[in-house]
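Let us practice reading a record.
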Amino acid sequence: MIKLLIFDVDGCLTDGSIIYGGTNDEYKAFNVKDGLAIASWSRLGFKSAIITGRNSKVVERRAKELHITHLHQGIKDKKAMLEEILKKENLTWENVAAIGDDLNDYNMLKSVGWSFSPNDGVDLIKKNVTTVLNTCGGKGAVREMIDLIIKKEELEERFLKLWQ
């Protein structure tokens, strides 16, 4: 059973755009549907993590808003970081679903129980994941991922009850 979701940020939770302001400000656009699904996943009692290669205060803020269990930024070896999380949470690779869109996600994606790429992920990643999503990064790809997991794990009734 999937118990932990792993998200890459740029290209998955966002469309990959990075906008810089005049005073070292950084801006990213997040999809509200992704956010609602992540928050609902947490409300179901499951865990999630962001593992990203960049560092950003915006990502830190978003992770807090969505009650994401683990936030790891500036990570070069995402698989090794995920291995540490698995030990802390007493989970196995089969308990993990992850989404990534580019080569720095490859080793992590090849190791997890269910791997995803947004539709606009790079070709080498799309060829090596379990599921290529119909949706592009930052446009609801994470929501599509979570909806597929909810359906496969037969959690739809519990998911809906969160909103009744």
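A brief commentary: The chain has a mean pLDDT of 97.
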